[in-house]
Amino acid sequence: MSSRSIHEKLATLTREMTEAAEAMDFERATALRNEIAAIRGEGALQPGDPDTVTVSQPPPGAMGLGTQVPVRQPPKGWVKPKKPDLMTNVSKPRGKR
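The chain above was modelled as a monomer; its predicted structure follows.
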């Protein structure tokens, strides 16, 4: 295929994908998106790929705007640091006021 015919094919598929999405035919739109990615040489995202984002249940008490933000997981081997003991780790002595 020539680069012109590839560009025309991509434009046609993009237009069809947009029309399918507007008609709420998301399965067809997804298939067209994957076909476009295959033509461009990109791989379609699979559920295990690191580029996919999973949204989990927000922590208790988190309600309202912004609670649909994805929850990030810490890297493997990361340990939460200990909280300092504020009664013994006072950096500045209290003076007279």
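The chain has a mean pLDDT of 75.
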